[in-house]
Structure to design on (264 residues):
């Protein structure tokens, strides 16, 4: 409303447009400049930052490629030029060194085994050590004789055979004498080895043999126990008339050997 007359705003705007000197309306036309939407694409800026970060990460490598300055740089370059890159050798596993204690353990275990074996051999279940078996004169049976001859099987030396009985207390001495001489003959501890053999006949088991030689039986001429007979090359030579000890038997045989009557 102007002076009672209604005027539309379109009619007034031309009047206002004449204030170009004031410069306000043209200044208000800066609204197009305020729209900074075209400058918003910040994503390229972020990508540029990432690119800058990658460049910074690559800078150490680039710095390494830069040649050092001065004499040190020259020395480094010459040493680098003189040395060729060496291929890395695969690491070999270190061989285990034998421990000294292993040898000691082995020796101790071997000794323990030997002691255990000796204990088993020498000590029976009862806990007492076994005595070495005594060497005894071999026993002869009917197969060893042919009548009143000994089956010598080519042996040209002498036999001393003892006829005994288990119930005879006096036979123990004769048996021990023959056993002692047999041990010497086997060990070759006497010069009679190979020239003299000893044996014994148990008349309680082989009564027929003892009767054949007149040792036992119902005959009044039976000599009784013990009886030691001497055979040479299988033939009966007579009764032994020496001492019934190991030493007595050995001395008697040595005397016969010196006389030349011990062998055929």
């Amino acid at each position: 409303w102007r002076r009672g007359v209604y005027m539309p705003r379109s009619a007034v705007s031309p009047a206002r447009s004449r204030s170009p000197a004031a410069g306000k309306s043209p200044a208000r036309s800066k609204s197009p400049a305020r729209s900074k939407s075209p400058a918003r694409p910040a994503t390229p800026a972020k990508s540029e930052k990432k690119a800058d970060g990658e460049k910074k990460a690559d800078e150490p490598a680039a710095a390494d490629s830069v040649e050092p300055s001065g004499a040190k740089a020259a020395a480094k370059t010459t040493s680098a030029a003189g040395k060729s890159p060496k291929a890395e050798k695969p690491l070999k596993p270190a061989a285990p060194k034998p421990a000294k204690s292993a040898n000691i353990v082995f020796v101790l275990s071997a000794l323990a085994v030997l002691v255990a074996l000796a204990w088993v051999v020498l000590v029976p279940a009862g806990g007492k050590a076994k005595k070495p078996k005594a060497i005894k004169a071999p026993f002869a049976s009917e197969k060893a004789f042919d009548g009143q001859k000994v089956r010598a099987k080519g042996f040209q030396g002498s036999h001393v055979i003892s006829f005994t009985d288990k119930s005879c207390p006096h036979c123990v001495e004769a048996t021990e004498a023959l056993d002692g001489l047999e041990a010497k003959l086997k060990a070759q501890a006497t010069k009679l080895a190979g020239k003299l053999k000893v044996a014994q006949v148990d008349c309680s088991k082989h009564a027929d043999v003892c009767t054949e030689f007149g040792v036992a039986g119902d005959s009044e001429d039976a000599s009784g126990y013990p009886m030691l007979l001497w055979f040479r090359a299988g033939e009966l030579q007579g009764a032994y008339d020496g001492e019934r000890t190991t030493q007595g038997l050995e001395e008697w045989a040595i005397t016969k050997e010196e006389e030349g009557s011990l062998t055929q």
User: Anything to note?
Assistant: The radius of gyration is 66 Å. The beta strands are 145-146, 149-150, 158-164, 196-202, 227-232, 235-239.
